[in-house]
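Problem 12. The chain below contains 325 residues. Write out its predicted structure in token notation.
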Amino acid sequence: MTRSIIIHYDPRLAEEAVFHAQRDRYVANDLDERRRRIYETSEPEERERLFHDLYREWFTRLGLGKAIDHALQEQPIITALVEACYVVCVTAAKEEGAELFVTSNKGFEEKRRRTLRIRIRPESLLDRQSAITFLRHELYHIADMLDPAFAYEPVLPKTDGGPTYDTLITNRYRVLWDVTINGRMTGRGWLPQTICDQQLNDFRQAFPMLKDGAEKCFRRFFDADQPRHSELAAFALDPRAASGALKESGAAGTHCPLCRFPSHCFEPEPEKLDAEVLIDIRRDFPKWTPARGLCAQCADLYRVNRISMAAAKALPGSNTSEHGA
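Solution.
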């Protein structure tokens, strides 16, 4: 038996959604008449309650919450594990989305309380099919977070590349997760097959280092029936190692092992750097080898450093040591 989740609608959302639905004349006429009668109520709090009741009634009569009901029932893991859903009003499309909140009540037995919040514009509810498509995608994220097989972790492992590189990894992970969700939605007939080309393009932009191997890696995620957080995180952190498809060092979009910044411009043949330059690099980075590559900027810095040292040593009376720069 499927458990019903308790859904709470923001009164402002109900009011504005009904307002946008007044294109039907009978709706507008009934609302105008009812509103006139409510305005005759002298008590402000009572008047406000009557308005909330009016818009909630028409919100239900117009079926403006059916897309949300439908999308939630398609994800039984959500209805089984989440206690309540709060649907709140936002004004911009970029603010729309779904969030899962988890709190723990410590006592004799620790119990987790899960709450879902859906952020949506009132006008989005008027196009039921578009709303369902959007909600299906967002609720797949929530279902994955609840699924023990997915084994979601809220924080990705930190890298030694600093905040900039951490942001890059997060963006890669987000693209991968969306690819797996849209792939599963396509498999269930919820999205057209044409979405595959769009997703492949997003995948290529997020992982330019894959080059000709991009489509093969993409299908691995798009066709996955049961993706796992650990697999997505590993691929986002190091596509070269996770894919096994990259042989050359310093592929575009990966990070330089010296400066740790992502780069699209790497030294083409690091093994052919001057011997003195290689010695200097290994002195600063003992574990580095030419096979690991380095970005063009770091290579240039070590070349310039070597040239500067040589020029300084050539000056009359110079006492510059070999490691003095």
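Discussion. The chain is about 50% helix and 10% strand. Students who got a different answer should revisit the alignment rule from Section 12.3.
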